[in-house]
Specification:
8 helices; alpha/beta
Length: 213
Amino acid sequence: MTERALHSVLIANPKGGAGKSTLATNVAGHWASQGARVMLGDIDRQQSARHWLALRSPLLSPISTWDIEPEQPARPPRGTTHVVLDTPAGLRGKRLEAMLKMVDRVLIPVQPSIFDILATGDFLTELAEHKRVAAKRVRIGIVGMRVDTRTRAAQELERFCAGLDLPVLTYLRNSQLYVQAAAHGMTIFDLSRARAQVDREQWQPLIDWLDSP
């Protein structure tokens, strides 16, 4: 990325299965539904986001991916205003540092299990040591994924988040709508408001954070 997009967010967590691709595709879907020129970039070897884009109907709000030309670095298409970067498990060290130079925000999905919580705690410690994060040039937010607030696991996640000097933007429920929509290259923002009302309400604090200056 040679030019910083108007809004750019990295979706990251070192643990696999945290919900990164679900979060990344739906962030991209939100911005696309607002008429933004969105690129969803996938730096995961599994290329989950790229496969998802291949399923997406041209009748839906457009979301692009990297422009790739022979002997040239991958870059967002010309005119891109919003960039979402999906990342692999285990993103650390110099590769993480390179990604942080491309974005102005980082979203960290966390599931309510002790293994996810411990892995995320270590990752946040590493993040805090990066220059752009320490200088507050990159904003960090946490999203609780697949959370049933009635469970003890959810309470453990809430206690973990309460001890952080970082915003917990929202808790997203374990909804089959995400699975059903993803199977067709869609997001909850491509569904009718009546069908996705509960999930959209859970997203609103996250949307406010993403769209803030």
